[in-house]
Amino acid sequence: MKNQAIKILSLSLGLLLLAAGPKPAAGEVSEYAVKAAYLFNFTQFVRWPEGSLDDASPFVIGILGDDPFGAALDAAVQGKSSGGHSLKVKRLGGFSAGMGAKLAHCQVLFISYSEKDQVKDILQALKGAAVLTVSEIDQFPVKGGVIQFDQEGQKITLTLNESAAKKAGLSVSSQLLQVAKLYKSEE
Q1: Would you kindly state where each structural domain of the chain is located, as residue ranges?
Q2: Euclidean distance between CA atoms 101 and 96, whole angstroms
Q3: What's the average model confidence in pLDDT over 71-76?
């Protein structure tokens, strides 16, 4: 079962990368093209609460802080949809107090490393919002984030805090749970 989930996620990721456009060098894919593909795939393997997005609204993937993706994220979601919603990338700039409502309009929020000193405030601003938080900031799941990108050699790995996902009202598919390292909080 785990191998099947890995094959499904890998196939989806591989097909997306092929469609994502030009590669940095022959046979080489950039780290952020892979992470962009993961962000898109998360929209397929996570379920948001009923009514958290109205029928006419696009599904928003937000980037908070410095944008490490460049055009890779736009290419990864171009022409794609999630749950019948078109996908939109929104660059939000740096975090400031009072922007919680703006952040809550995202379904997926990538919190850039540039915001590492404000993670606690960002997650507090999102408390109770149905937002999948993703980052590459060290110890992100320990701090209450949902998914952290890690790297082992040339491989991108995931650490997932299922408790944080549940607090946000998100349901993570068993296929994604099987390919991620799970962080167990002590609550």
Answers
A1: 2-183
A2: 12
A3: 96
The residue among 38, 36, 6, 39 whose CA lies nearest residue 21 is 36
Instruction: Locate 147 and state its tokens.
Output: 């998914």
Separation CA 111–CA 90 (nearest Å): 12
Distance CA 158, CA 177 (A): 10
Instruction: State pTM to two decimals.
Output: 0.85
Least confident stretch, 51-60, 90-99, 112-121: 51-60
- What is the average pLDDT across 165-186? 91
The encoded tokens of residue 170 equal 């998100």
pLDDT tens for residues 80-114? 999 889 999 999 999 998 999 999 999 999 999 99
Q: Which two tokens stand for residue 34?
A: 């892979």
What CA–CA distance (Å, rounded) separates 142 from 154?
24
C-alpha angle 70/74/80, rounded to 5°? 160
Assigned CATH topology for domain 2-183? Rossmann fold (3.40.50)
